[in-house]
Amino acid sequence: MWDCFAAGRRTGALHIMDSIIRREYYRWASSLPMNTVVLFVPQQEAWVVERMGRYHRILEPGLNFLIPVLDRVRYVQSLKEIVIDVPEQSAVSLDNVTLQIDGVLYLRILDPFKASYGVEDPEYAVTQLAQTTMRSELGKLTLDKVFRERESLNSNIVHSINQASDEWGIRCLRYEIKDISVPPRVKESMQMQVEAERKKRATVLESEGTRESAINVAEGRKQAQILASEGEKAEHINKAAGEAQAVLAIAEAKAKAIRLLSEALTEQNGNAAASLSVAEQYVSAFSNLAKQTNTVLLPSNTGDVTGMVTQAMTIYSQLAKTTPAGSSAAAAEEKAELPDGLASAEEQRTQ
């Protein structure tokens, strides 16, 4: 117990000494000069002179004259930019997280009179104001925003300090946060959150890649089906065109064959040639009987080839004689268009 008490006393004494050292450090300006008749004021310094204990004037850089007994240099203010290290302090964020934060303060004395008589220790006052302002500004933000909005936090602290330090003749130029320390458990949770965010982004990117891959595969299949259908369509069109041309060629060949046959029939011994052709077809058809099916229908006079040929020629003659009038007219028109030799042959066949 006494050890704890002694340790506490030592800690308190160290804090007091540190505060005294810091205050002495803040008042780093040159020591007061001797009261002589002739004084040389350095550049970027302002010397505040009192006459008989009352403010008299501020000496400008260069040569100045004083009355040794009546005048006295009371304050020496530096007009350069002053850099002050703001000690580390604890602050609580909006989401109740305790932070250890420190910073650097940049300020300049604009009015030596106010800096001398407006506040006892202007640098120390500005430092304390920066610490309290930092606590209040951190209390308005959550932990995540403290790290993201560091620049806006600095500007808010500068604005708040300048509002209060105008009466002191001091202008705060910049405030920069050096370090922000969080408790170990909070740091672990933040690390886990970062890892979770990275895993989330990786999962999202992987899913997007899978989706793009599926879309590309589907597009490829669609294009392949379209091309295949177009190829099949072209194939059917070409096949139909080929079949049409084949049918047309067969019809033209058959028409030409019939034309040649009719011309041959009109010639001498045409009927004998036709009888021979019918006889050959009959023999060929008779030889193919019972090759495809078991059921065969035979005429009673199967072996009478002469009778069959005569019967076929008789049917042909009867059909030629019973041609309709329209067909006769068409035949007459066709005969009129034929040459003289073919027309005479056609007449002989009809007779």
Descriptive report:
The chain is 60% helix and 18% strand. The chain is an alpha+beta fold. Among the domains are: 48 residues, no CATH class; 102 residues, Tetrahydropterin Synthase, Chain A (2-Layer Sandwich), CATH 3.30.479; 86 residues. Strand 6 and strand 7 form a beta hairpin. Helix 6 crosses helix 10.
The sequence of SSEs as H and E is HEEEEEEEHHHHEHHHHH
Quickly count the helices.
Answer: 10
Q: Briefly note the structural class of the backbone.
A: alpha+beta
Strand order of the largest sheet: 3-2-5
CATH-derived topology of the domain at 81-182: Tetrahydropterin Synthase, Chain A
Rg from alpha-carbon coordinates? 62 Å
CATH class of the domain at 81-182: Alpha Beta
Helix content: 55-70%
Keywords: Mitochondrion
Region (Disordered): 324-351
Protein name: Stomatin-like protein 2, mitochondrial
Membrane topology: Lipid-anchor
